[in-house]
Design goal:
about 180 residues; eight-stranded mixed β-sheet; about 15% strand
Length: about 180
């Protein structure tokens, strides 16, 4: 396993989302490190990569706005999740990441991200990481869509898409994150 994170955002994340695919734009396919996005880059990705990537960013921003306001301050940066998505999500100092590399939980427990929440998008992706030995933890399946490992602060949820991760399921994910954080602080 590499000790290099690959994806968008900052390594000082409170929320890390792991996704199996990358935007099909050359520079992102070649990405080999964690890189903060710039203002307008999410719009650019949405315009060039289609509705699927717009949904990923929209669901991520909606999740941040659904989180407990006493535990997370994402909603204090912009009046709406849409403005947060455009002006802060995955940018420097956002405390968010969208990672294309596998979770590196042993490395994480040695640094300041011990309190970070790790969200793996999609049951299929999580099972793939487990079968390849890229994720070495036990998951407790809460139902057919959500799994958790409380000690490693990992949650598996449906893929970040409106049909798979509806508003009701976003609220469920936010509740699971709140539960994890109640055992840390």
């Amino acid at each position: 396993m590499s000790d290099q994170y690959i994806g968008f955002g900052t390594d000082e994340y409170q929320i890390a989302v792991y996704i199996a695919n990358r935007p099909p734009i050359y520079e992102y396919q070649q990405l080999d490190q964690l890189t903060a996005l710039t203002t307008g880059e999410i719009t650019h990705i949405g315009q060039h990569c289609g509705n699927g990537w717009r949904k990923v960013f929209n669901v991520y921003a909606k999740l941040l706005y659904a989180l407990d306001k006493e535990q997370f301050n994402f909603a204090s940066f912009a009046p709406t999740w849409q403005e947060y998505r455009d002006d802060f999500l995955l940018q420097p100092h956002s405390k968010t990441s969208l990672l294309f590399s596998a979770p590196q939980l042993k490395l994480i427990t040695q640094n300041a991200n011990q309190k970070a929440v790790h969200i793996i998008t999609g049951k299929t992706y999580a099972k793939s990481l487990l079968s390849k030995g890229l994720l070495d933890i036990e998951l407790i399946w809460l139902n057919s869509e959500f799994a958790i490992n409380r000690s490693e602060r990992v949650i598996v949820c449906p893929y970040f898409d409106y049909r798979q991760l509806s508003n009701v399921k976003i609220e469920r994910l936010a509740e699971l994150i709140k539960e994890l954080n109640q055992h840390v602080y």
